[in-house]
Automatic annotation (TrEMBL):
Heme binds at C429. This is Cytochrome P450 ClCP1. Belongs to the cytochrome P450 family. Keywords: Heme, Iron, Membrane, Metal-binding, Monooxygenase, Oxidoreductase, Transmembrane, Transmembrane helix. The keyword Ubl conjugation does not apply. InterPro entries: Cyt_P450 (IPR001128), Cyt_P450_E_grp-I (IPR002401), Cyt_P450_sf (IPR036396), Cytochrome_P450_monoxygenase (IPR050121). The lineage of its organism: Eukaryota, Fungi, Dikarya, Ascomycota, Pezizomycotina. Pfam families: p450.
Amino acid sequence: MALLQKVVGTIFLYVLTKAIYLIYLHPLSKYSGPKSWILSRIPYLVYMNSGKLPFRIKELHDTYGSVVRVSGDELSINDPQAWRDIYNRRDMLRPSQWGGRPPGVEAHSLISAPAADHARFRKALNPAFSEKATREYEPVVRAYIEKLLSRLDVAATKGPVDIVEWANFTTFDIISEITWSKSYGCLDKATGHAFMGVLLHFQAFLVAASIKYFPWLDRLLAVITPKSAFRLLEDIFQDTHERLHARSMIKEPSHADLVGHLKLHQEQAADADKFREAEIEQNILTVIVGGSETLTTAISGAFHHLLASPRVLSKLVHEIRSSFAKEAHIDTNALSKLPYLNAVIDETLRLCPPFPDMLRRQVPASGAIIAGHAIPSHTTVSVSCYSMFKSASYFSDPDSFLPERWIDGRDGAEAREAFHPFALGPHNCLGQPLARMEMRLMITLILWRYDVGISKGDSLRKWDEQKIYWTWEKQPLLVGLSNVDA
Ligand code: HEM
Ligand SMILES: *[C@@H]1O[C@H](CO)[C@@H](O)[C@H](O)[C@H]1NC(C)=O
C-alpha cells in the first residue's frame, strides 16, 4: 500500500511539475493558447482526426490573437510577415511527424527530403513545370477537357451531374497524361483509379502522423504491424515501376511529358545532380498526388461559390462569352488576361484553399525570427491558410465570396501579402502554372458551353460544413447543365 502511494505520488508530482513547466517556464510560455492544448497533444489530434482542426485554429486566433500556442511546442502564426520568415528559408523543414517516408521506402521525395536533396530534386523538376514547359501541356489539358465536355454532354441529358466527381476524373487523367503520356483513363471509364485511392486516403495519413507524436506507440506499431498491411503500398510502387517501364519503351511521345523532361535532365546533369531510379518514382507519385485532388478541390470550390452567388456567376459568364467569338479562340494566354475570371479563381482559393493548413515547419537549431518574435529551436510553426485567408484583419467581409476585392483593391496591399495559396519559397507549389491553366480552362469551357444551375429541389450546403482531412472532404455537388447551343 505504501509503495502504491509512493508510485501514485511520484506520478502526480511528475505530471504537476511538467504542467507547471509547460505553462509557466517553457520558452513558449509567453504565447497564449488553450491550457489543455499546451499540456497535451491530444485535443489537437482529436480535432485533426475529426476533420475540424483548421476551423478550431481559426477560432483560437480570433480569441488569442495572431500567435497561438496550439501545443506545448507548436505555434500557429497569423501574420503576413510569417509567410516570408518561415517559408523562404531552406533550413525550415517539415517536422519529423510530417516529413517521413512510407514504410520500407529508402528514397526521398520532395516532401521528405533533407534540404540538399530537396534542392537537387527541384532543380530537376522546376524546368518541367515552368511557365514555358506548362504552355506545351496546353493541348493535352485542352484535349482532356474536351473529353470531359463530351462526357458531360451525354451525362447531363439524364439529369444533374456531380461536378466534384467529373472534375476529379479530369484532373487525374491530365496529371497522369502529363507525367508519362498515358492517362489513368478515369474519364473513359467514369471511375476513379483504385491505386491512387490508397495514396489519397488522407484520413489514414493523419492517423499515421498522429501516432508519430507518441514515439513509443509508433515503435510498438512498427513491430506488431504485419507486412501484409503494406501490400497496397507495394502495389502502387509496382504499378509506378511498370508505367515508367512502359513509358521508356516510347521513343517519340506524341507530346512533352514529365518523364521526357527527367530523361533529358539525367542525360545532361552532372553526376551529383542526377536522380536515382527510386527517387524518380517517389517524386512522380508526389507530383501526381499534388496535382490532382488539389485541383479537384479548387474547381469544385469555384462551382460551389458560383452557384451560391448568382450575381457573380452571371458576371463571369458575361465576361467569358463576350470575350470570344467562338470556342476555338479560347486559350490560356487570353484567359490569363480576363480580370473577373482570375479574380473568381483567387477568391475561390481564398475561401477553399486546397491546403487549408498542413504547412508545418520546424525551427532549426539556430532559432528564427518570425513576424518579429524570436522563436526557439525545435518549435513547430506554420501559417494556416484557412485562418489567414478568412481573417478580418486582412480581408473586409471575409466570409463573403467577393471576387471584386481582387480588382478594386479594397483590402489594401496587406491582403496580397496575406494571400499565398501556393505557399512561397523553395518548397512552394511546383505546379502553380499548371494549376492556373487547368482552373482557367476548365471553368471557362464549362461556362462557355453550358448554362449551369442547381437543380430544382436541391439546395447548396455551406462549403465550410465539409470536413478537412488534409484537404477538403468534398461532398457531391450536383449541377444541372443545359447546353447553350442546344
Ligand atoms: C489549385 C491547385 C493547387 C494548390 C492551391 C497547390 C498548393 C500547394 C501548396 C500550398 C504547396 C506547399 C505545401 C507545403 O509547403 O507543405 C504545394 C506543394 C506542391 N505542389 Fe501544389 N498546389 C496545387 C496544384 C498543384 C499541381 C497541379 C501540381 C502538379 C505538378 C502540384 C504539385 C505540387 C508539388 C510537387 C508540391 C511539393 C513541392 C515541394 O515540396 O517542393 N500542385 N502546392
Ligand atoms: C478522386 O479520385 C481518387 C482516385 O481516382 C479517389 O481516391 C478520391 O476519393 C476521389 N475524390 C473525390 C472527391 O471524389
